[in-house]
Every structure is written in C-alpha cells, then in structure tokens.
Design goal:
With 375 residues, the protein is mostly helical. The protein contains 20 helices and no strands. The chain has one domain (35-373). Helix content is 76%, strand content 0%.
Length: 375
C-alpha cells in the first residue's frame, strides 16, 4: 500500500513538473512578442469598449463566444488578461491529454505524451495566440475524456456535459465541431451494438446544431465568406503537412532556409508517430485513430466544396492527440533498449528546445512573423 502511494505521489510530482514547465514556456517572452497576422483584429475588438466590441464582433469568420470571454478577461486585466486566458486553456489541454492517455494506456504513455505536447513549439504558439485555438483544443479533449467515462460507467450526466461542450464549441469555432460528430457517431454505434436505444444520446446532440443553425440564419453571409476563402495548400501535400508542421513547429520553407534542425525533429516524430500508430492499431484500440483520421477525412471531403476547410489551423482542435503516438513509439524502443530510448528522447528534447528558441527569436524580432512560423 505504501509502495502504491509512493508511486502515485511520484506520478503526481512528474505531471506537476510538466505543467510547471508548460506554464514557463508559454509565459516566456509573452510581453515582447509581436501580434500574429490575425491577432490585431482580435485585440481591436476586445480593447476599444463594449460598444465597438458589439459592433464588430460578428464580422469574424468564427462564432463569437470565445471573444465574449476574451473581452471579459481583457476588461479585467488588459492584454495580459487575454494572454492569461489562452495560456490557461493551453495548459489545461495538456492536463486533459494526460487524463485521456492515462485512461486508455498507462502512466508512462500519459506522462510522455503530456511532456511532448508541453515542449511542442506549435502548442506553445496556440497557447499564446489570441484566437480560440487553445480553447477549442481543451473543449475537444474534455469531450473525448467525458465520452470515455460515459463508455465506462454509462452515467447520464456525462451526456449532459458532452452536450454542453459541443454547444460551446459550435458557438466558438465551427471546424472544431467535426470531432464531436465523430464522438457522437461512435457512442451511438456502441449503444446500438449493446442493444440500447440511443434516444438520450441523440437528445444531447441536438442543441449544438440548432444553436449553430440559428447563428447561421442571422450571419449566413459571414460564414459563406469564410467558407469561400481560398488557401494555397494542395490537398495531398497538406495531409502530410498537418503532421509535419505540428511536430516540427516551423514552416517547411522557413526550416529549409533558416532552421534545418526543425526538419530533423519533424521527421523523427513522424517516424515514431507511424510506429506508435501501428502499435495502437495492432492492439485493436481504434478510438483515437478513428477520431484523428476520421476528422481529417471529413475535412478533406469538405475540401471539394470549401477549400478553406483544409487549412491546417482549422484542424488544430485534434492536434494534441497526435502526440500520443510518438510517445507510444518511443516507449516501444524503451522496452527493448533503454539506452537508445534515452538518447532519442534527449535528441527530441534538444531539438524541441532549439525550435522553441528559434520561435521566440522570430516572434520577438519580426513584426510580420506569421509567414515564417504560422502558415
């Protein structure tokens, strides 16, 4: 019993250390960074009084719920209140990833997944970016965890919270609703397979599309303009870029011209992603691959109608999940050769920190840094 308690305390200390590091990395140089491409618009909306905020808030390409929250934090604490908001949800996303991975796998996978996300340049960017990315990452991860709990204990209250999370997401960032549709489809499949009628599940699904439908009726031209926007990303190329970009943290063109070490980091993590994915699929644990690749498939199906859907940031809600698979791949190496595992992990840590240093340099030195990092 004492040994078990000691192990629990050790695991708690480890995840607390990861979260402390996450806070430090996300607060670092926050006062010196230049706003990214679309952040000046957000800052304008939340910084010039309630009248101006109400007048312009519905001009964005996303529903306004996040911006109401941002306006409140900015009103209370200024721009650093806004930064505090996105950082909080960035760190909470790491917590939720840890809980999901602990539920599905074990402590080692959970801790390593959380650590890899903690030192991810792209996740630091999302956690500092004055847009709803870190918020919807938290919402999607929380929904996944709630759905896993529901599959385990069938408590009806889980469906209430899942419905609330879906509703908030629908009124925050419409591309992030895709994983929710897949979660509900998966739960319905499980219910029907078990011989239960999913009436309550369907009832919990309805409020979000109804709310979004009402929003669409009032602001259809705004959403139509967002969907009509064109991004210069080829369909096939962007599938691989989604993984490479989120692992390397820096644009491929920038990596080639200014920081080639990021290419090595991206390749290493992509290799271990494939290895971890193979391990998960061979273990017949399909839920996470279903959510990741199912979401990407829906985005790509929509591409043929709306080019804007496949922009990698629109798929950012599922981004934290991809870090589970390199962790599993690395731990497969650890079981066969601990020395090689620690060498690989040290290389990943050094390259990740180097990528972060380059990121901090760019966002504090270039007034227009988005073409180097954010695209």
């Amino acid at each position: 019993m004492l040994l078990k308690l000691g192990r629990r305390l050790s695991a708690a200390k480890a995840i607390l250390a990861v979260l402390l590091l996450a806070v430090i990395l996300r607060v670092l140089f926050i006062w010196a960074r230049y706003p990214g491409n679309d952040e000046p618009y957000t800052l304008d909306w939340v910084s010039n009084g309630l009248g101006h905020f109400i007048e312009v808030i519905f001009k964005d390409t996303s529903p306004p719920l996040f911006y109401f929250l941002a306006f409140l934090f900015n009103a209370l604490m200024g721009i650093y209140g806004f930064y505090l908001l996105v950082i909080i949800f960035g760190v909470l996303s790491i917590v939720m990833l840890y809980k999901i991975t602990l539920f599905l796998f074990d402590k080692k996978v959970a801790l390593l997944s959380a650590f890899l996300l903690c030192i991810s340049t792209m996740h630091v960017l999302y956690s500092q970016h004055l847009r709803p990315y870190s918020f919807v990452q938290f919402l999607v991860l929380a929904a996944i965890y709630v759905s896993l709990l529901y599959l385990k204990d069938k408590k009806r209250s889980r469906l209430f919270w899942l419905s609330i999370l879906f509703l908030i997401t629908a009124l925050t960032y419409y591309p992030a609703t895709v994983p929710f549709v897949l979660i509900y489809a998966y739960l319905a499949f499980k219910e029907i397979r078990a011989g239960r009628k999913p009436f309550l599940l369907i009832a919990s699904f309805i409020p979000a599309p109804v709310a979004f439908g009402a929003f669409y009726l009032f602001f259809s031209s705004q959403i139509a303009n967002a969907l009509a926007h064109k991004y210069p990303f080829p369909l096939f190329e962007n599938f691989f870029y989604f993984f490479y970009k989120h692992f390397a943290g820096i644009n491929l063109s920038t990596s080639i011209s200014m920081f080639p070490w990021a290419i090595i980091l991206g390749i290493i993590l992509c290799i271990f992603f494939v290895l971890g994915l193979w391990k998960v699929l061979s273990s017949k644990k399909f839920f996470l691959p279903y959510l990741i690749f199912g979401s990407i498939a829906i985005y790509y199906a929509a591409f043929f109608k709306f080019n804007s859907i496949v922009y990698f940031k629109h798929m950012s809600a599922i981004m934290p999940l991809i870090f589970i698979f390199p962790a599993i791949g690395l731990l497969m190496v650890e079981r066969s050769n601990k020395k090689i595992f620690w060498i690989l992990l040290a290389v990943i840590i050094l390259l990740s920190l180097a990528s972060l240093v380059f990121y901090y340099y760019v966002i504090t030195s270039y007034e227009i840094w988005t073409p180097l990092i954010g695209h």
